């Protein structure tokens, strides 16, 4: 079953390669969507795909890349259509 999750990650998540890491992990899980930095210091992701794959991606985000410090992850169901593939977007 296809699902879409919008994920907000706070902590030390900018200027450490979080977006590039997210793109690589998304490819590993076979999910589509995007990742971008937010001006308030968080990172936002839109993750779409099979439920198991999306759940796996969200769990990976809870750990983050080696240099990250994850303080909070908020994931919620969303209805936005994800693009094909998984891309890195500009700061919003």
UniProtKB/TrEMBL annotation:
EC number(s) from the headed UniProt entry: 3.6.1.7
Stored InterPro entries: Acylphosphatase, Acylphosphatase-like_dom, Acylphosphatase-like_dom_sf, Acylphosphatase_CS
Pfam families xrefs: Acylphosphatase (PF00708)
Acylphosphatase-like domain ranges (all copies): 4-90
PANTHER family hit by this protein: ACYLPHOSPHATASE
Record's catalysed reaction(s): an acyl phosphate + H2O = a carboxylate + phosphate + H(+)
Protein name: acylphosphatase
Top-level taxon in the UniProt lineage: Bacteria
Keyword Hydrolase: yes
Positions in coiled-coil regions: none
A molecular-function term among this protein's GO annotations: acylphosphatase activity
Keyword Membrane: no
Protein family (similarity comment): Belongs to the acylphosphatase family.
Active site: 19, 37
């Amino acid at each position: 079953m296809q699902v879409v999750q919008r994920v907000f990650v706070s902590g030390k998540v900018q200027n450490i390669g979080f977006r590039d890491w997210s793109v690589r992990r998304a490819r590993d899980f076979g999910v589509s969507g995007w990742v971008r930095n937010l001006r308030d210091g968080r990172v936002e992701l839109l993750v779409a795909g099979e439920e198991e794959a999306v759940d796996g991606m969200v769990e990976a985000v809870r750990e983050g890349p080696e240099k990250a410090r994850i303080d909070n992850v908020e994931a919620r169901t969303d209805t936005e259509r994800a693009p094909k593939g998984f891309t890195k977007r500009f700061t919003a």
